[in-house]
Design a protein that fits this description.
Strand content: under 5%
Oligomer: single chain
Structural class: mainly alpha
Distance between the termini: 83 Å
Largest sheet: none
Shape: globular
Number of helices: 16
Number of strands: 0
Helix content: over 70%
Number of domains: 1
Length: 314
């Protein structure tokens, strides 16, 4: 008796399914890689200051609409800024031997597809910011202006990482504007803390890319600092921790927040130990550990909010 052939059940992992789908539709694959980038975990770094601000701006738990809007806005701003920065960089480097900094969007989308991607992403980002309020919209456009100026800063000064770190820390002020309709002194203090924290993360990246930047004739803060890069990183990281302590004093937050800061300080020590030899892979591992540091600060804020009623940092 003949048996009916049965279809083999697919055991592909979700990531493999996405990869097959994007490979089958090249344009969709290009958009997917442009949005996620080659290193999604590094893109997550820019979200931590915004998430700190969302929790601190709310009475206890951040409203879900604002949480989703701010998260989406910060995530979308990165590929859009990278795409526009690459185009501006290509225009600035025209006729020279300098290599334009690589950007995920430019590598996978070309011609009309690239233009459609930029227009669509700009419209979506503008719509998301408008849903957060008028002030959040204009402040978000200001952060995008920082990103657009980055190619000029990178080519004509050595302070690109400091400049971009301020742009990322600005997301904390945008989050306050989305939740409270304005930015209090606490919001600006947290924006300063987030800026210093992001500058530290970007310096680890610059140290990893220093040899390539020198070869291509690009400038970076790591090249400017030279052998003083680790002391400068210690100064920036220490400044971020001091600013975060001041945030906990002003909020005020319960002592659970202090536990998060202690853990973040310990993780910073591990970063310096990993990258003490300044090797490229070691610096990239230190950079990746920044996500754990950001999560530790957020865990401290959440713990302090949940405990409530406890005494704030003295």
């Amino acid at each position: 008796m003949a048996t009916r052939p049965t279809r083999a059940r697919s055991t592909a992992a979700p990531a493999e399914v996405v990869a097959r789908t994007t490979d089958a539709v090249p344009w969709l694959g290009g958009v997917w890689r442009a949005l996620c980038g080659p290193h999604p975990l590094r893109a997550l770094l820019a979200l931590w200051p915004a998430w700190w601000a969302l929790w601190l701006a709310a009475e206890r738990f951040p409203p879900w609409p604002q949480f989703l809007l701010v998260t989406l806005a910060v995530w979308l701003a990165q590929p859009l800024g990278a795409f526009l920065g690459e185009r501006i960089g290509g225009w600035l480097d025209a006729g020279t031997r300098k290599s334009s900094p690589s950007a995920p969007a430019g590598e996978v989308l070309r011609g009309r597809d690239a233009l459609l991607f930029a227009v669509a992403l700009t419209l979506v980002l503008a719509g998301v910011l408008l849903l957060g309020g008028v002030l959040a919209f204009w402040m978000g456009l200001g952060a995008l202006g920082f990103a657009l100026a980055h190619p000029f800063v990178r080519r004509y000064s050595y302070l690109a990482q400091a400049f971009l770190g301020v742009a990322c820390g600005w997301a904390a002020a945008v989050a306050f504007a989305a939740v409270q309709g304005g930015v209090s002194a606490l919001g600006w203090l947290l924006a300063c803390a987030g800026s210093l924290w992001m500058i530290g993360c970007l310096l680890w990246q610059a140290m990893a890319d220093r040899a390539e930047d020198l070869r291509c004739g690009r400038r970076s803060t790591a090249i400017l600092l030279g052998e003083m890069d680790l002391p400068a990183l210690a100064l920036v990281s220490g400044g971020a921790l001091v600013a975060l302590v001041l945030v906990g004093h002003r909020a005020p937050l319960a002592m659970g927040y202090l536990a998060g800061l202690v853990l973040a300080a310990l993780l910073a020590g591990v970063q310096f130990w990993l990258a003490r030899g300044r090797g490229r892979e070691d610096c990239l591992r230190a950079l990746a550990l920044g996500n754990a540091s950001g999560a530790a600060v957020l865990a401290g804020i959440v713990l302090a909010k949940v405990l409530g009623g406890a005494q704030g940092l003295a």
